[in-house]
Amino acid sequence: MARAVTPKRKAINTALAWAVGLLIFFPILWTILTSFKTEAQAINDPPIFLFFDWTLENYAVVQERSNYMRFLWNSVIIAVGSTIIGIIIAVPAAWSMAFVPSRRTKDILLWMLSTKMLPAVGVLYPIYLLFIELGLLDSRAGLVIVLMLINLPIIVWMLYTYFKEIPGEILEAARMDGASLKEEILYVLTPMAIPGIASTVLLNIILAWNEAFWTLNLTAAQAAPLTAFIASYSSPEGLFYAKLSAASTMAIAPILILGWFSQKQLVRGLTFGAVK
Amino acid sequence: MGRITLDKVTKSFGDVEVIPPLDLTIEDGEFTVFVGPSGCGKSTLLRLIAGLEDTTSGHICIDGNDATNVPPAKRGLAMVFQSYALYPHMSVRKNIAFPLRMAKLPQAEIDKRVEAAASVLNLTDYLDRKPGQLSGGQRQRVAIGRAIVREPAAFLFDEPLSNLDAALRVGMRLEISELHKRLETTMIYVTHDQVEAMTMADKIVVLRAGHIEQVGSPLELYKEPRNLFVAGFIGSPRMNLIEGPEAQKYGCHTLGIRPEHIEVSADKGPWSGVVGVSEHLGSDTFFHIQNTGLAETITVRADGEVGFRHGDRVHLTPREDVMHRFGADGLRMA
């Protein structure tokens, strides 16, 4: 039964949606605003919302003190690299789980997800030792591997749900048409799953971009990405709020822009399979 | 060449035996139809031949070579699926060319064969469209095109017409039959529709619960059904099956008589009853006669001109030369 949507109801819904949206966005907005204040105004009580002396000084200082581009480049390599390797591993894994499931497939999927429930700090020590042993500390390669492994369960799960939606008969048709397993995945499955793969890639780039625990603990100077860049301005002493905000804004800007342009894809990805 | 033999093939899913040991030979160039009610194992049998399911035991030979453990891609068979299973991201041209691309044929040869298949199937104008932009009948033709370009040893059809509307289904039925006449390639066709089976097949395989109930030409099955199941399954409307004293009079446990072999008249005949529902097809009328004391209803086929009404008392005369006699075990009596 269709529910009648009255103009009044629509107005209330719109207002509510905006309110919730603003509430969620407010911390980011506040960070961006603070980045344009002076350090004194940044900690002013009561807080100043819009009427302060707008300044770009914080950005200039941050850029002067640290090499933003190096951090940015590290972030890009770590986020994109870990996602690409993850996808390459996850596509065949998700294929087998979706199309040739065994009796234990469900258990394996759950087990994979359960690794995400483990507090990361619980394995910090062994992984740290492994990194020392393998000479991976403060290397981009090491972070790519760790972040790929950490996000792999999510990549497999997402791809698995997309693949489940693809009719098995089409893959069987490819097999009848003489396609080898590799050709079946490359020419039939992957192109059909492109929307799903795209949103998985986007989500995982965002997750890897924002990952702070491992990037902070396993890097020092060489491989440090933007999360470390932000952290370097978080200090218990001194007036650093405005600079911290400027650094944060610079760190989240690339991913915000990426998210803005791909929001359609992301929404589809996150709600895929929920409604048929 | 496409002679396919199944030797003691079985298939189980877990503990459930879907196909008990089964032997079958399909001759080269033959149009064979697997028919049976849903769940009888006909699609499973086709998928075993295709290689999409592994046999639990037994052997499948294609042209004398053991293909039991050969992957589907290497069996040289082409399949048309019920859902068409076209590649939605490829144009019609690419869909049809796909098996040739997989076979690594030179591009010129691929183009030539795709054009030829498209012209045979009236698809030339649609080659650059995507499957989503085609009607059901056109999609079906693309699926057939994809099957014929690679010149397979045999075609496998898995209920290919069941998603089409009635008019289109009759048209496609004729097209597939014509295709078979022209290509003279082995075709195996699965359907639950006995009309499709009767009209298209050289040979019908009637299946029930994985067992072959009877193999024969359409007319053999119609004239001499081996048992009650085949008698009831082949022929439309169904054969009337009469038990009790009337059957004993003819020396059998169950007496079978087809609706078209009973004459209906107002005043004479050994059986009598009251007209229930009548179905007027124009050319023919099917009367469902009740209160005969023989069976719940007796279906009779009469000329379209015959005009009995609901509630009329009528008399029936069965043609004794075409009666079917079955024993208590359900098998046909000699």
TrEMBL record, chain A:
Q: Where are the transmembrane segments?
A: 12-33, 71-96, 108-131, 143-163, 184-207, 240-261
Domain ABC transmembrane type-1 intervals: 72-262
Indicate whether Transmembrane helix appears among the record's keywords. Answer: yes
How does the entry describe its membrane topology? Multi-pass membrane protein
Principal localisation: membrane
State the protein's name.
ABC transporter permease subunit
Report the leader peptide range.
Answer: none
InterPro entries listed in its UniProt record: BP-dep_ABC_trans_perm, MetI-like, MetI-like_sf
Family recorded in the similarity comment: Belongs to the binding-protein-dependent transport system permease family.
Report keywords, A-Z: Cell membrane, Membrane, Transmembrane, Transmembrane helix, Transport
Q: What is the lineage of its organism?
A: Bacteria, Pseudomonadati, Pseudomonadota, Alphaproteobacteria, Rhodobacterales
Task: Give GO terms for biological process.
Answer: transmembrane transport
Keyword Transmembrane helix listed? The answer is yes
Sorted alphabetically, the Gene Ontology cellular component annotations on this record are: plasma membrane
Q: Where in the cell is it found?
A: Cell membrane
Q: Name one Pfam family in it.
A: BPD_transp_1
Automatic annotation (TrEMBL), chain B:
Q: SMART domains, from UniProt?
A: AAA (SM00382)
The alphabetical list of record keywords is: ATP-binding, Nucleotide-binding, Transport
Assigned GO CC terms: ATP-binding cassette (ABC) transporter complex, substrate-binding subunit-containing; maltose transport complex
**What InterPro entries has UniProt attached to this entry?**
AAA+_ATPase (IPR003593), ABC_transporter-like_ATP-bd (IPR003439), ABC_transporter-like_CS (IPR017871), ABC_transpr_MalK-like (IPR015855), ABC_transpr_MalK/UgpC-like (IPR047641), Mo/tungstate-bd_C_term_dom (IPR008995), NA-bd_OB-fold (IPR012340), P-loop_NTPase (IPR027417)
Q: Name one GO molecular function term.
A: ABC-type maltose transporter activity
Q: Where is the ABC transporter domain?
A: 4-234
Task: List the Pfam families hit by this protein, alphabetically.
Answer: ABC_tran, TOBE_2
Per the record, the similarity remark reads: Belongs to the ABC transporter superfamily.
UniProt protein name: ATP-binding cassette domain-containing protein
